[in-house]
Amino acid sequence: MQQVLISNQVFTGTTDRPVPGAILVEGNKIIKIAPSIEELKPILNEDVTVYNFDDQLVMAGFHDFHLHLFPGALQLQSIDLSETKSAEDVIQVIKRDWDQHQHKEWIIGFGWDNGGWNDAALPTKELLDVHFPDHPIILNHLECHYCWVNSKALELAEITKDTPNPEFGEIMKDANGEITGILMEKAQSLVQKLAYNFSKEDKIAMLNNFFDYTARHGITSLNDMYAPFSEFLDDFDLLYELEEKKQLKARVHLQPKMDDCLDQAKIFKEKYNHPKIKMNGLKQFIDGVITGHTAYMLEDYADVAHRGDTTYPLQQLEEWIIEADKEGFSVRLHAIGDGAVKFSLDAFEKARKLNGSQNTRHTIEHIESIRDEDILRFKELNIIASIQPYHLAALEQKIYIERLGEERFKNTYLSKSFLNAGAIVALGSDFPVVHISPMKEIYHAVTRKDSTLVNDWNTNEKLSMSETLKAYTYEPAYGCFREENLGTLEEGKLADIIVMNKNLFEIQSKDILETEVVFTMCDGEVVYELKSAIV
Known about the structure:
Blueprint: E1 2-11, E2 19-26, E3 29-34, E4 49-52, E5 57-60, E6 62-67, H1 69-75, E7 79-80, H2 87-96, E8 107-112, H3 125-131, E9 137-141, E10 146-149, H4 151-156, E11 169-173, E12 179-185, H5 189-195, H6 200-216, E13 219-225, H7 237-244, E14 251-255, H8 262-271, E15 277-279, E16 282-285, H9 314-326, E17 331-335, H10 338-355, E18 363-366, H11 372-375, H12 377-381, E19 384-387, H13 391-394, H14 397-409, H15 416-420, E20 424-427, H16 438-447, H17 465-471, H18 474-479, E21 497-500, E22 517-522, E23 525-529
Parallel strand pairs: 1-4, 1-5, 6-13, 7-8, 8-9, 13-14, 14-15, 16-17, 17-18, 18-19, 19-20
Antiparallel strand pairs: 1-2, 2-3, 5-21, 9-10, 10-12, 11-12, 21-22, 22-23
């Protein structure tokens, strides 16, 4: 089957601006790209399907380099708390959406952030108990590093004031030693293992909804990142079931947990080695988050006298990284504090010295805080910087200034500095921590606006549109060893192509947020079409 996509604005990703073009797709590959359809006519069949997109922007499909697949699928059917402005607002949203959740055993919500509330104090279980005394509730904080639960949830999880804290986790208590209802880091798992116990049928329905959602947003590839809260949800064999039914609408690159058991990782790599379902490497957390004082810093926080902590002892983490590198696994490390970033770079450098070149492409995730001297090391060590620009708006500047102080705040959420230093920058969303929309990521990458959409956050870190789109297409493909067949529109590459209703290179920045994907093709198959563009 032949298909031709025509537009006056084709951004191939091999240059910095879109140009007129006609793209011939046959099967799942791009066969030829010409300036116009006239030049393709000698090789076209009579039954060719032609799409004319006029001045709409045609480009390679977005590749979200960092998200959490199953938690994201869960979030789409949970209560959205991202617009709430207070604890009482959260209560009202739950009540408003109560009807569609009453039949479920657990009420699950995502996205509240007390950092943006007038009263920034952490909420308590009592606020939930008054309104929902008999129904277990778990409400995930925006960053998913802590959650808010009610007494019923604590009861079902058998959590009492005498329950010991897990390693790198805290069951928060008040001055009287009573549980507050906030579970930090790995303490969340005590409740999550109960709340996230879904049937296979439920998970299939969630996944189908998720992939419809990614198709509507033009995401043709994604990297699923291990997270502790996803261990109770993950069921990757279901991806093969979807693919057999032609329901898998994006390529999935898997990054399971890195620990001391590489035998399991080797089995996983063998099992998931399909053109659309492929293991890409291993993932581990070095630290937590700045907002919760759990990110690992080189010096004390500005507002508390400690430096945060690490998920595991640093020596143990270093041993895992060196061994994984030795066995040829690319390693991706969640490192938010400047101490965690420095440790990650040190560990990767040591691995290279001990193991030599293993053809690995290691990545550091988030990098919210970094020392100047460590920026250049990304290029020197060939480490990919994985960035999520929309976090600038999802989280509050004032919290970062309070936690870090003015000087360290200047080096938060860098992006252009990495490019200027010659490093590879790949973009993603971190969904369900924030919305999956690439338009939000693009907007904040090129404007550096915070949650107000007026105030700036380190404006010298702005990316150009070309840099941004390449970081959302080609660089993630490179990070997955797939730059030879994904990430740009070129002859011989796989036909993962999207179309947007506006030309991102010509519109004002404020209009980026209103731009929509109108057509998504993955592996040569049209998986989303807002309206027919067939000639």
